[in-house]
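U., I forgot to send this yesterday:
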Amino acid sequence: MQAGLLPPPPPVVIVLTVISVVGAIAIPFGAPQFIDRAIALELSFITLAVVILLCDRLTVRTVPLARLALYACIPLAIIVMVGNSVASPHVEMMTTFSKPFNAVMLIIGGYVLQGALIGTTILQLVRTRQGIVQNQKN
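Result:
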């Protein structure tokens, strides 16, 4: 790494950022009565991204908050996917493409990126675990 350059962010941070961007684009096209919950959800993704990006700088009783944030990503992604699957208006929109832009944003943000979040989170947890095991051997 060259002097003065920051290391690249972990893939999970990139996915969380893309989820937030897609959500920010999609929120104005959603139902106005749910805007407060949509904003809260997007803020949770942003918060997770920042905490994971700060890595070992934030700790609670010697446990890095980034590790706890990683464990929160998987259930959050599952909740989003299940929530989209049980919401009748969402299912109807995705199956009929009555509002094509909304349907595409919902599929991308609600399923594709959530799946990517689960995958990158597992990858990051495995890498973290391998690093811990490697340090214990040394």
